[in-house]
Structure to design on (341 residues):
């Protein structure tokens, strides 16, 4: 079975071709440069860029995979959550193609795709669901921070999520306060590597809260007040590096502690982690160390699959079709606020 996957939920236009769990092609066109001068994603610009790029990228993915469009067996696209007009480009193009080719169409929840991307690795990238075991999954992206109990493949339940800002949003907003270029998360990560994480004691919001929920807006506000009272911190590179390391340490400690606690409480032996923020080097390292101490196995999505991509869309669609959980109609609506349940 060959699946064409499409992802346009935010500022990456991506098309992938999957065959029997193997990623034959995963072309990602990032719009980072386009949005950089505005300091964030501009939905109208993102949409126009998706419109411009989607068909060429689709052609490139098919040609890299050596697959003719007529040989595609099913088509999948992100249905939500995401920016409404951006989602519309990918979803309706993919759905139309499925209709014209008379092939099944599978709408995909963006978070669910992130979740299962942790089960894809190797070279070439391939799905490793034969190794599946019940797990607690941390999904950390620009828009969401979720802890999910995955009882069986495609059977999961959200344990908790952020009640305000997502972890990635916190990275990005703090980076903006410091004056770092967009996108702030990766830049803050880079500077933090040279800083002292104990230089400043920022709050660890909800770290002792018994729920599996998160809150990061207070941390962002704490940094804002800190900078108001200590503007000199922004004057030297070393002080900025210490600030970045200290903020990152606060975010990472909350994410790691709450993930381990949720896994131990749920009685699972495995943790998975995915989403854009899982590119963060300290988070990858510290989650690894904490899982080893707690004797939990860990699967972190490969860096290239952490940020938005269509391979995760195609892989999930294939699993859904194999489990007869797919769809064969062509009247799907975009769902900008689609929740993972
Ligand atoms: O999953 P993703 O590509 O898009 C969404 O679905 O939101 O995640 C993007 C988020 C952004 O907030 C970005 O700053 C963050 O992931 N991010 C990072 C790093 N790389 C990407 N945050 C911290 N450290 C990084 N290295
Ligand atoms: Zn995402």
């Amino acid at each position: 079975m060959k699946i064409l996957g499409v992802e346009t939920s935010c500022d990456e236009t991506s098309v992938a071709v999957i065959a029997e769990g193997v990623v034959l092609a995963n072309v990602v066109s990032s719009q980072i440069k386009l949005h950089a001068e505005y300091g964030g994603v501009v939905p109208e610009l993102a949409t126009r860029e998706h419109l411009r790029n989607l068909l060429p990228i689709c052609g490139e993915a098919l040609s890299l995979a050596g697959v003719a469009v007529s040989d595609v067996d099913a088509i999948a696209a992100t249905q939500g959550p995401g920016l409404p007009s951006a989602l519309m480009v990918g979803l309706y193009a993919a759905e139309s193609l499925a209709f014209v080719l008379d092939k099944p169409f599978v709408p995909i929840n963006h978070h669910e795709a992130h979740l299962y991307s942790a089960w894809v690795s190797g070279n070439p990238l391939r799905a490793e669901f034969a190794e599946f075991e019940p797990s607690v999954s941390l999904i950390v992206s620009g828009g969401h921070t979720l802890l999910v109990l995955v009882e069986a493949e495609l059977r999961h339940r959200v344990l908790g999520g952020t009640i305000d800002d997502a972890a990635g949003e916190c990275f990005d907003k703090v980076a903006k306060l410091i004056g770092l270029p967009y996108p702030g998360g990766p830049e803050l990560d880079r500077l933090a590597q040279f800083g002292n994480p104990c230089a400043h004691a920022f709050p660890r919001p909800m770290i002792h809260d018994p729920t599996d929920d998160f809150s990061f807006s207070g941390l962002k506000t704490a940094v804002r007040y800190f900078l108001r009272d200590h503007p000199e911190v922004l004057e030297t590179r070393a002080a900025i590096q210490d600030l970045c390391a200290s903020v990152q340490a606060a975010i990472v400690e909350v994410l790691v502690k709450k993930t381990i606690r949720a896994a131990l409480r749920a009685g699972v032996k495995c943790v998975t982690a995915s989403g854009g923020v899982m590119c963060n080097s300290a988070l990858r390292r510290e989650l690894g160390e904490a899982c080893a101490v707690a004797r939990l196995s860990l699967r972190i999505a490969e860096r290239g699959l952490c940020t938005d991509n269509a391979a995760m869309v195609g892989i999930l669609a294939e699993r859904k079709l194999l489990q007869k959980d797919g769809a064969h109609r062509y009247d799907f609506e975009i769902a900008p606020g689609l929740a993972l349940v």
Remarks:
- Residues 237-266 form the longest helix (30 residues).
- The chain has two domains: 2-125+305-323, 133-301.
